[in-house]
Design goal:
2 domains, five-stranded mixed beta sheet, homotetramer, Nucleotidyltransferase, domain 5, about 40% helix, alpha/beta, about 325 residues, about 20% strand
């Protein structure tokens, strides 16, 4: 199979693109994410037809946040869209006349990085996406591991603090409350409140208040050496690295690929993550260490990965 | 291949047995575990020759505590025997003249349960052994998953309490400090010290002091309704169930198989574990739940599993 | 001084009462708590005039949630009313023509219990109020200890879980997130969600949903043996008792007096609290143990205590 | 009363000194700490007679690690010497012919700092000694607060991590496991093991191994900018500052005096402690902040304080 179409459903926009066998995006389009489940299906179909009309694309891969069943056809539960047991594959196939594969968006992104990004040369890869929350994907022996019910790799909801912070999932102490972009902002706000004199750059970038601090402000301020911003990244890195050490005990990959907005800062973030990873890696002296790599495809990973999964059928 | 020999290296004794294709042990022998690395190799060879001399066994599988490299030939590090990069496969092959496969003992036991025990009908199984420590094995899609460097499935050393109890591995807060047999004894001793009047049965089974309480006493006292013993099992179950919920987020298996001394009490332990598992399972309303099953093979699982892995080459 | 007037400012109503030297309330009235700071001052004055008009009361003591300065005149900060550096003493004195003393409500309640309730015979008492949040009061050597800035005894905001639950105070892991009435409801809802079949009584008392569970339902269900309700009280008791053990390390009192809605259930709650206290009490074998007593005055403690503090000037 | 003698019983040596009303030590002597309880009593008496023979000293104050009863006469329990209900006051009085007061060593040191050191101008002071363990002393309203049974101020054994590190006291997660000199060394060893290339100075000061690192090495390396040493102090400071914030919620002092070996580095340590204190101080915007001061008397505080307590009778 040559060309396929990848679709990435985000909270605010849906992106579709024609992708070739080398993972290159040939054509792309975006539409806003409609508020209703039906609207989303129509928007997906519209986006697919838009990019696919002039191409020889033969299949569609859709990456969606949520639990996707093991037939890769139905979204059991989505956090952002009001889908409950939504038969997405069937509905889109009826509209676009091509075979459709549905995959969890983090899995799709992991597959994209594994095939065309940072994963080159590795067959046992754990992808961790540090975005607003934390997503993940598991590649073992060159295959995407989805779990029995299609919902493996929910790294963000591993409990890292007993009796810890409440999470939107209903549990407490989930990793994504400590190592995601949202956690980074919380660290920065708490610290800027306590010691505003050490956060002058950071506060200057927002509206001057701790509550006005956004993730982009923390990144920009850290690059300029703002003490609170740097400390906030360091705190995030402690949790991120400790979590990777746990994942190493569980999966023993040859590489971690770290993506998501938090990782856009590259080694500014990844170096302290690596340090924390090494500190907490069990048996560090007696085993090869997994590499901690930055993702390479940015927000294209999901679209490219979904398209490639559709190619593989 | 018909008959193979399984070897299980324990801290105090080494067991070898001839095993057929159905997982039945036809002949077996035990020798004490020698104190030196060389002695252990000789003892393994001796045990293999003892059970194998009259049989048609064609291969040997060895289960050993520690990190085993991805060629399943070398023990990188063992916690109980002074092995550092021990070429166990080569050394034993030279002595017994049969092909040898070395596997982590928890992996071997997991494989045994998957093939001939509680795992019947499941192809995505996580085995958790709650013994003195906690071991684990991962079966995904019907295959033993070993990780890139052969050291996956070290569930016992996932950090469940930041800044928690020191672990023999050098880290802190490892799961096995909270959900293993050793943890059970600690809970019982702490509680019996604080409220001895609620531990009369328990204290009566040992030497009358909290320090004299052993794991077997806690089990026996719990069966007789001793309050401290029951509470100690309940505390262990809270940690065990929460850990299984984390493993469900990561691996999404169709079943957990729980073995090890702690689980010998069956539903007395497993029912509270299941309750805690359900409490902490993320997305519980939107996904099928993995079953939590008791292991069936007891301490034969490692030997039988190692033999079967040797059969599969 | 003979009669004085005590005022207790609650979130929904303001109570005033004339109190004699034995702590007996002779006359009382209640008015709703107005929404504005000015309204509250007027309502206090109105309530004081209502009960005081026919009496020989000579002074007024006011108990208010929040930080009260060391002159016992100004409320620096209140969590429920929009007071910032509110000169409550001056404003009320101007309106009622009697000397006024302002005290933190938990301190006032502690003083009431010490003088006329469970504290009889003890001069070193720590009062802990397990209500919606957790309040506290410190009596040392027969004197109310207020701290340098009048804000000692904020037991509810001691951090008991690093990186724990967010608290309304802006910090994380505060004790009141784990051992208050609000925590009790959270435990019950989480457990009823996970194992509804073990919460039939509890769910039947509310609207049938976990979200509909209120504190009074948990108490009623626990008395009827509902498993989830009993377990929820037990979880609360674990945290409460461990916190008392910490307070014993710090203050070494001869008695704890436990009040608040959670403690209305008496020994149903206090017995597990005592058990947990003993489990975590440091040096338990080498020191006398503080008693853990139930408060006796209920919600009259604050009013009576405030009145008595006004008497003492 | 003019001159008195202070005695400080340490783990390795016993110091005695004649002290005047201004807290000046006029004469002093040291003897090794004997291994037996009886030997310690004799050594104390010998030291007292040595310094006191030519002086007009009229009373003796003894500071001893452990629980001291409320009559300040009997050591109920000592962690380092095998004392159980040791009638130290009587035994020493019989030997030296002067009135003797026994006080917990941390209380004595707190009193010394309050009277003649950093506490000048403060009447509500919390002293925290970050040494091998953590000791404490409470001065409220200008008086040493000892608790009902003489064992208040055991700050080091407040639980700051549920299910945390085992403590010699039998409990878990005690503050002194995270913010003492011993904790500092643990942090340094863990980090030097994980990232030896960032600990070159530190490792060079010891025997080259992580296990060889001592507290003095961490201090010296931190002054020279060693990354691991600096990070270790920072980790200690996080815990120390958070603990002070808790003590502020409880005691609301006007000042903290921080002493002990860890604080010898002065602002190198205290500045990050202050930062962490401010981060975690509850209600920081609505209350005056306690100062965090360095102790001034060093290891003389206990001797001077014990002497002054004897003067006061």
């Amino acid at each position: 199979m040559g060309l396929t179409i990848g679709v990435d459903i985000g909270g605010t926009k849906i992106a579709a693109g024609v992708v070739d066998e080398d993972g290159t995006i040939l054509d792309t389009c975006q539409v806003p994410t409609p508020p209703t489940p039906e609207g989303v299906v129509e928007a997906i179909a519209h986006a697919v037809r838009t990019v696919g009309s002039d191409s020889a694309a033969e299949a569609v891969g859709i990456g969606a946040a949520g639990y996707v069943d093991d037939k890769r056809a139905t979204v059991l539960f989505a956090p952002n869209i009001d889908w409950r047991r939504e038969a997405l594959k069937d509905k889109v196939e009826q509209r676009v006349g091509m075979p459709v594969v549905v995959e969890n968006d983090a899995n799709a992104a992991a597959w994209g990085e594994y095939r065309f990004g940072a994963g080159a040369g590795h067959d046992d890869v754990i992808c961790v996406t540090l975005g607003t929350g934390i997503g993940g994907g598991i590649i073992m022996g060159g295959r995407l591991y989805r779990g029995r019910f299609g919902v493996a790799g929910e790294f963000g909801h591993v409990r890292v603090v007993p009796d810890g912070l409440l999470c939107g999932c209903g549990s407490q102490g989930c990793w994504e409350q400590y190592a995601s972009g949202r956690a980074l902002v919380r660290y920065a706000r708490q610290r800027a409140t306590a010691t505003p004199e050490a956060a002058e750059v950071l506060l200057g970038l927002g509206d001057g208040t701790a509550e006005g601090i956004q993730g982009k402000h923390v990144s920009a301020a850290a690059r300029r050496g703002d003490k609170v911003a740097v400390d906030s990244f360091r705190e995030l890195a402690r949790w991120a690295g400790a979590g990777l050490a746990d994942l190493a005990s569980l999966f023993d990959p040859s590489a971690f690929i770290v993506g998501g907005g938090v990782s856009d800062e590259g080694d500014l973030v990844l170096d302290p993550v690596r340090k924390s990873f090494r500190r907490w890696l069990v048996g560090a002296r007696y085993r090869p260490h997994a590499q901690v790599l930055a993702a390479q495809l940015g927000n294209r990973a999901g679209l490219v990965g979904a398209a490639d999964l559709a190619r593989q059928g």
